[in-house]
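Shipment paperwork, digital attachment
Item: protein structure file
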Amino acid sequence: MTFIHNESLHIFDCDGVILDSNFLKIDSIKNALKKVGVPDKIIKLCVSSFKINFGKTRDSHFLRFTEIFLDEGFPHLCNFINEAKSIYSSNVVELYSNAKLISENVQFMKKLNWQSDCFVVSGSSQNELRAILPRKLNFIKSAIIFGGPNEKNINVAKILKRSSKNNAILY
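Attachment content:
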C-alpha cells in the first residue's frame, strides 16, 4: 500500500468510517420525530429516506421529511419540523461526543500524512464535527474537516479541486 500513501489523496467519511454513528443518528431521527408527535408509519418513511440519503445535509433531510408529511396527508406535522430538527441537532452533538471510534480504520488513518493528503467529509454540521473530531483524534485538525451546510459530494468536489494529487480514495 505504499503507493497509495504517497500518491493519493485520502478522503474519509465521518459517519460509519471514523465514528460508529450511523445507527445512533437513525435512532436520533426516530426519537426527534416521535417527540413532536409524528406517527410511526411516517417515521418509518422518514427513516427510510434518511438511510438512503446519508451525505445530505440536515436541512435537506428535514426538507424531505416535510415533503413526506405532505405526500402522506399530514400537513399539520410541517408545523413541528423545526422543533424536530432542533431536537435532532441537540442529540447529534451528544451522540458524536459519545460515539465510538472505528478502531481498525483509525489505525490505518494514523499511518497517513494528515498534513497535506487527508481530509474528512460529511453531510453533518461542519461546526459540530470541527468541535468534536480533533478532540477524539488529535492528528485531525479542524481545517481539514468539511461538512454542512454543503452536502458531502460538494465537499469532496471542493477538496479535489484544490488538491494537486492525481488520485483520490474515498473511504
